[in-house]
Amino acid sequence: MREPVPVGVLISGRGSNLKALIDAEQDAYRIVLVASNVEEPPGLAHARDAGIATFARGHRGMAREAFDRLIDDELRAHGVRAVALAGYMRLLSPWFVDRWAGRMVNIHPSLLPRHKGLHTHEAALAAGDARHGCTVHLVTAALDDGPALAQAEVPVLPGDTPETLAARVLVEEHRLYPPTLAALVETL
Ligand code: GAR
Questions:
Q1: N or C: which end of the chain has fewer CB within 10 A?
Q2: Global pTM?
Q3: CA-based Rg of the chain, rounded to a whole angstrom?
């Protein structure tokens, strides 16, 4: 069996998808670094609990590419070969996206191409969608626009609020992300 592919995960907040990636069987990939553009995001605790190296630094005052180069240095220093965005809420520079082309995935809380950007659960409700869900896709230069690798659907139920819908989608995010990341790294 081949060695697990070293993966870096980028987060900005709660880190529940990071936790799901950590808790999954890490045969295909091994998370070797969790990096953040926020100094102390709550999700960093999941990395620390699992003994994973962390790099967290506020991005304010730094040009986008200069900050991304810092992250890239850390990823390279840890031998990372694929990057997973897990609630990383900062736009990446074209330089960074290009550097990790084909090796960087994101999870987005909608059935792309529907509802790109923020507030996807509100948008699905406002549009009267009968189905909603999440997408894991390759990251390309345009926001939430790269080729989809996998999707999971949930029904939109009568009386749903953005919160109840978000919670239903999040369960599917946690199911979808680990096997999709594993399948991607097996092709690298
Ligand atoms: C998740 O719902 C993820 O899909 C979303 O942020 C949340 C992060 O939660 N990502 C985006 O909206 C990216 N465009 P988490 O920190 O608990 O994983």
A1: N
A2: 0.97
A3: 16
Three-state secondary structure call for residue 69: helix
5-109+135-149+177-185 under CATH 3.40.50.170, yes or no: yes
- Confirm whether 137 is a catalytic residue: no
The owner of tokens 């069996």 is 1
Distance 112 CA to ligand 1 centre (A): 14
Q: Using the mean position of ligand 1's atoms as its centre, give its distance from the Cα of residue 108 in Å.
A: 6
- In Å, how far from its chain's centre is CA 169? 14
Residue 17 Cβ inside 6 Å of ligand 1? The answer reads yes
Going from N- to C-terminal start, the domains of the chain cover: 5-109+135-149+177-185
Indicate if ligand 1 lies below 6 Å from the C-beta of 75.
no
Whether the CB-CB separation of 121 and 159 falls below 8 Å is answered with no
C-alpha distance from residue 125 to each of 114, 121, 134 (Å): 12, 6, 15
